[in-house]
Design goal:
The chain has seven helices and five strands; from the N terminus they run αααβαββααββα. It has 175 residues and is of the alpha+beta class. It has a single domain, classed as Nuclear Transport Factor 2, Chain: A. A hairpin with a 5-residue loop joins β4 and β5. The longest helix is centred in the first third of the chain and has 22 residues.
Length: 175
């Protein structure tokens, strides 16, 4: 191959690599956006930013007990008001299928602790209560992903996802 031909091949390969890199470094994937929404919900709840927390719910949202957005937000706000120093740790997040029509589901686990137990958590090796959430989402145009349905239940340490257990063992090595 001639010198100008080789330069053209190298330049073409470099441009193709740059284009591929630009595409992969572009906008975050829908899975990443969903994970960020879950993290944002935890941050807003823990900071008692109830107005912004409520903004994460889609119109028509309902939970497994029939509560609408206002009812679910009130439940969370009442819990946060009842206890001092609530700490919410997001453990594992598993994003399920993401439908091209803008529907998705996610399962996540959280640890809740508060008050003196949180202050003394390492001393007394109390990691809190564990909950598993199953959440349905809908992509709501420019607003992005929003919660449309949620159910949750308390779980024991023996029921947590393996990735949740790994996070807990980092926090509590003797767990």
């Amino acid at each position: 191959m001639t010198r100008p031909g080789r330069a053209l091949v190298i330049a073409t390969a470099a441009l193709a690599a740059a284009a591929a890199l630009a595409m992969s470094c572009g906008r975050p994937s829908e899975e990443v956006r969903i994970r960020e929404l879950v993290k944002e919900a935890v941050r807003r709840a823990e900071k008692k930013d109830i107005a912004r927390f409520e903004g994460l719910f889609a119109p028509g949202y309902a939970d497994f007990e029939g509560r609408d957005t206002a009812g679910t937000v009130r439940l969370v706000a009442n819990y946060l008001d009842r206890y001092r120093g609530v700490v919410i740790r997001l453990l594992a997040t598993r994003v399920g299928d993401i439908d091209p029509d803008g529907l998705a589901s996610v399962e996540c686990e959280v640890s809740l602790s508060h008050g003196a137990a949180e202050v003394l958590r390492k001393l007394i090796r109390y990691a809190g209560e564990y909950y598993r959430f199953r959440i349905d989402l809908r992509k709501d145009g420019p607003a992005g992903w929003r919660f449309t349905y949620a159910e949750w239940r308390p779980i024991g340490l023996t029921e947590v996802f393996p990735e949740s257990l790994a996070i807990l063992k980092e926090l509590f090595p003797d767990l």
